[in-house]
Give the backbone structure.
Amino acid sequence: HEVSELMDVPENVLIEWVEDGDLPAYYMNNRYRFNRQEIEAWLMRKKGTHPENNDKKNEVKKPLCRKKGVHRFNFFRALSKGDVFCDIEGKTKDAVISSVISRLAPKVQLDPDVLYEAFLQRERLLSTSLGNGVAIPHARDLFLNGRKDFIAVVFLKEAIPYESIDGKDVDTLFFLLASDDKHHLGLLSKVAHFAKCPQAQGILTKKPKKEDLLELVKNWEMKISSAR
């Protein structure tokens, strides 16, 4: 029930995914149990779209979680509140996260040491790399006060090793902070789906400015909304 609420997916659909071997779960004491890190990894890497939306003829597919109403442009709004940083330097994952957090902390009014440790702790549990040079660093249990979400897109000066599933170095990162657990999972799914879009991949390699990236995100969210 808790996973159903967080993902905005009916319980019977979740059970179908589990029984089909799509969604990771454990059957213990006559109940299904889920691991939070495995759910996050599944959202980012395995199922960026609803399995039932598998019509090859559709150019635009549905990202999982938070599909209606005020969540229609949640990615756009989070990026509007956030920022875009280009040519960030750092030879390691820790160094890059530290450099970016020093810029983010004043914007979200959080202690930089606490924020850095929260992001680093999530990476220690499981790499947030999506593959293809992209990662989505995020804080597992740290949420912003009020109903606001925050995304910063970071383009590195040089790609770095990131324990990626495809072995590729990472040069583009989406730093994500959400206002609650539902927003967190919904944005993870949507950003992962966006990053796998061929048009987005082509533009991200050019390190676009914030206004250009916002326009791309807005148009993309509009398309996936009209495709439903």
Q: What stands out?
A: The first strand starts at residue 26 and ends at 28.
